[in-house]
TrEMBL record:
Keywords: Cell membrane, Membrane, Phosphate transport, Transmembrane, Transmembrane helix, Transport. The chain crosses the membrane at residues 7-28, 64-88, 100-121, 141-165, 186-206, 257-279. The keyword Membrane applies. It is found in: Cell membrane. Coiled coil: none annotated. SUPFAM superfamilies: MetI-like (SSF161098). The gene is pstC. It is a multi-pass membrane protein. Signal peptide: none annotated. This is Phosphate transport system permease protein.
Amino acid sequence: MQDKIFRVLLILSAIVIPLIGGGIIYSLTVDSTGAFEEFGFWNFVFSDDWVTTAGKEKYGALPFITGTLLTTFLALLMCIPFSLPVALFTGEYFRGKKIATFLGTVTDLLAGIPSIIYGLWGFYVLRGLFMELNFSPQGSGILTAAFVLAIMIVPYAASLSSEFIKMVPSDLKEGAYAMGATRAEVIRRVVFPMAGSGIFSAYILAIGRALGETMAVTMLIGNTNQMPDTLRTTGNTMASIIANQFGEADGLKLSSLIAIGLLLFLITAVINIIGKILIRRARRV
């Protein structure tokens, strides 16, 4: 009897997840139809207009899609050189030692810090530093936001990658050492092939974290509704434009903001699907 009850609970739990996802897609689609009917789906996606004047309203998502993708993938490029060495340090080179435990604890602590704290630190410390180094004339911009995003996702990628590295069977590594392989060769030919799909999935999760980040990016990106032409210029992401203007929006503007939310949902879903496909292919190889 208990097994039947437990099985029913599992089935109900499995049904709830698709229902929640479908409900989110349905509500976003319904509330964004006004913008798509007014401007057309593709015209809305590829337009860089954002005119809020009554009677002359024109809305397009391209500047915010560009800002989102720029900050996310720039943050990922800055994240990899730091997160992967940390994962190897805690998961392979000093596994089980106090220094690895300490570094792992600090990494987990950084992952748990609220994003608003990163935003405040970036606003009061990083902006001034970037201005002094002439990285950004006003301190805020695409580069500043991406740098803070990179710091935010390093703990996620490093912690998850370390766990996958620890899961590599010791027998395989010991066999490689017995054949005369060096530590670097073991990592390149044993650890990475075995843990590669898991490490890749860790970075996919890190991308998801960066795509949806709101508060820290809102405080540092400059919040201008324009196409960013360089990394030093200000801009907006899909999340930051919604956070900035949703409270005072109504009518066509509100529908456009919800449409941007729907596009952000779809972009995140597409990236995750591509990631899963690549992970499956890597496992087959």
